[in-house]
Design a protein that fits this description.
Elements lengths: L8 E4 H17 L6 H25 L4 H19 L4 H12 L7 E4 L3 H5 L4 H7 L11 E6 L2 H17 L5 E6 L14 H12 L3 E5 L8 H12 L7 E5 L13 H6 L2 E4 L12 E2 L5 H5 L27 E3 L5 E5 L3 H16 L6 E3 L4 E5 L3 E3 L7 H17 L8 H15 L14 E2 L10 E4 L5 E3 L15 E2 L1 H10 L4 H15 L4 H25 L4 H21 L7 E6 L2 E6 L7
Helix pairs in contact: 1-2, 1-4, 2-3, 2-7, 3-4, 3-7, 6-7, 13-16, 14-17, 15-17, 17-18
Length: about 600
């Protein structure tokens, strides 16, 4: 199934250069500020991204080699500043001087660092992992980062080595870019790195390969290790530093089991995975146990755990509650990534649709807990429809983006439809884009709450999902209109009313393009729930909830793509048997 998206972006190089320079200047002004560490981490991530982009360019065109080397030095200096804040001012001033010498190309390709954006990985995790490595101070160390994220991580590991073993300790770093099929990566070493590796190998150096992962295949780590070994480095002096454990027998790269076991691997321990010391986790769906078991839910739709929302626990963002349960914390990303999510949350709260955000430590955002009752599809009403219509009209005006490429969504829809039904989707399917936005992408009923204080409807979890590593990414607002219709299980009359309310509130004549978005939305959710069900291991209850959702989305998708002569379809929903026209909102 296709559910993940390629988050790589083509961005103006001069703009990113200017933004980094502004961050470095801000650090110098606010170095005593309690937010100083967040500012340094943000600058580190941005420098690592630009170093990675320019190193990729230098691999194809040596003209960029000097700029890439300068950016590597800048990333190293910022990393050292994080580890020795008492000397940060001098180091950041030096980094600023280096940055002023760099000429960035007009466009650069940036891959947001997924671990730092979505999975509560922190650069300090890799520094602390060095305490568990048996490194001989008499042996040099070569750090090899796997681009993209390994660029930033390798700078932090190198800085950690020098803090741990002294400035005179012989250590250096390079980065490599494995290429080829995701399950069969190959790593090539460029000429100047080739000589450096041979030099360190002659000194019997240890080689530390650094990246997040491994993923399903492990082939990026393995290809980097094999490339070093091919240059004469003994496998006994090659070590992997990973963000998660690997079962060698489950990795899908060629001969992965024996290859992985031939190297030593270390898994970093989380060091900054909590927003506060006294907060406690409600991750991986455990928030449901605290919410739906409260007395007010007895006898409601959510009283039965079989009706609880399904989650993919391994890929759910980290969530915490404060000790007194008055503050909810959600991991929303380090640096500029978390800042972008919080800014969306701020604007939504300012408009009265949600709860005010505040920055917390370690990539978390804090939200004061709202007292109220999460809704279910049984709570559909004219008030709910008007609130959702007004909310989507607000998003249309506030979170508009310049352009959207729907080709990947069309490919996803056709691919998932083919895999689910064994037949191709008809040629008439075509997604039109008229109002591209950062979508909410979470229009489920349980993401809405009726506040006890003023009975107003509040939208929860409304800022991160429209621009994370899952599809859809930036998309036409019709995605959210379709999502609301499907998730709230609207019948014919209700869907008509909702679209009428939205069109009046927004001025967007969404009807003409909505059917294909209903198809695409249900194809994505059917694929997502199927993939998640296969990934939850021995959690039988979670798998049943995910299979429940898959069956429902599959049936909706089947009805939406049925022969045009079929006037109505029947789908089994959580609220009973609904009769919904094939194209419920296309009738005028």
């Amino acid at each position: 199934m296709m559910v993940f998206r390629d988050v790589r972006q083509q961005l103006p190089g001069k703009q990113l250069h200017s933004e980094l320079l502004a961050e470095l200047n801000s650090i110098q002004i606010n170095r005593q500020n309690e937010d100083a560490e967040n500012l340094l981490v943000s600058a580190l991530l941005r420098s690592g991204e630009l170093e990675c982009a320019l190193t990729d360019l230098a691999a194809a065109d040596d003209h960029h080699h000097h700029s890439a080397k300068l950016f590597a030095d800048i990333t190293d200096v910022i990393a050292r500043s994080l580890l020795s804040p008492e000397h940060a001012l001098q180091k950041i001033q030096y980094a600023t001087l280096l940055l002023q010498q760099v000429k960035c190309p007009e466009r650069v390709s940036i891959s947001p660092p997924e671990g730092f954006c979505f999975y509560a990985l922190h650069p300090f995790d890799y520094v602390h992992s060095l305490d568990r490595l048996a490194l001989d101070p008499s042996q040099p160390v070569m750090v090899v980062g796997i681009r993209s994220m390994g660029t930033t991580l390798s700078a932090m590991v190198l800085a950690g080595l020098r803090e741990k073993l002294g400035n005179d300790f012989k250590a250096n770093r390079i980065t490599v870019r494995p290429t080829g099929h995701p399950y069969d990566r190959r790593t090539s070493i460029v000429d100047h790195e080739h000589e450096l590796i041979l030099e360190f190998n002659r000194l019997s150096a240890n080689f530390l390969i650094v990246d997040e992962g491994p993923g399903l295949s492990g082939s990026s780590f393995l290809s980097a290790g094999d490339a070093l070994h091919a240059l004469g480095v003994p496998k006994g002096r090659i070590q992997f530093i990973c963000s998660r454990p690997a079962d060698p027998d489950q990795l899908v790269a060629t001969d992965a089991s024996s290859r992985w076991r031939s190297y030593t691997s270390h898994v970093v321990s989380p060091t900054r995975d909590k927003p506060t010391l006294d907060s406690f986790p409600i991750c991986g769906g455990t928030w449901r146990n605290r919410t739906f078991t409260r007395p007010e839910y007895l006898g409601t739709h959510y009283d039965d755990p079989a009706h609880w929302p399904a989650v993919w626990p391994q890929l759910s963002p980290s969530k915490f509650l404060s000790e007194d349960e008055s503050i909810f914390f959600k991991y929303e990303g380090l640096g500029r990534y978390g800042s972008a999510v919080r800014e969306r949350s701020r604007l939504i709260a300012e408009a009265g649709f949600s709860v005010e955000p505040a920055i917390a430590r370690n990539g978390f955002t804090s939200y004061r807990m709202a007292e109220g009752t999460p809704l279910s599809a049984l709570d559909i009403s004219s008030e709910v429809l008007q609130s959702m219509a007004s909310y989507l009209a607000f998003r249309l005006k506030t979170f508009e983006v310049n352009e959207v490429n729907c080709e990947v969504l069309e490919e996803m829809t056709r691919f998932n439809h083919q895999n689910i039904f064994g037949r191709e989707l008809g040629p008439e399917f075509r997604m039109k884009v008229e109002h591209p936005v950062i979508a909410d992408a979470r229009m489920m009923p349980y993401e809405w709450m009726k506040a006890e204080s003023n009975r107003r409807l509040l939208k929860l979890d409304c800022s991160a999902h429209g621009d994370n590593h899952f599809l859809p990414g930036p998309v036409d607002i019709a995605w959210d209109v379709a999502g609301a219709i499907i998730e709230w299980e609207m019948d014919t009359a209700t869907s008509h009313m909702f679209v009428d309310l939205y069109e009046r509130a927004s001025g967007d004549r969404v009807r003409a393009r909505l059917h294909d978005y209903l198809v695409a939305y249900s194809a994505f959710q059917a694929g997502y729930s199927m993939m998640a069900a296969s990934a939850v291991g021995d959690d039988f209850e979670e798998r049943q909830r995910l299979l429940r959702d898959h069956g429902r989305y599959r049936e909706i998708l089947q009805g939406l793509t049925a022969a045009q002569s079929t006037e109505e379809i029947q789908i089994t929903s959580r609220t009973g048997l609904l009769r919904i026209p094939q194209s419920p909102v296309l009738q005028t």
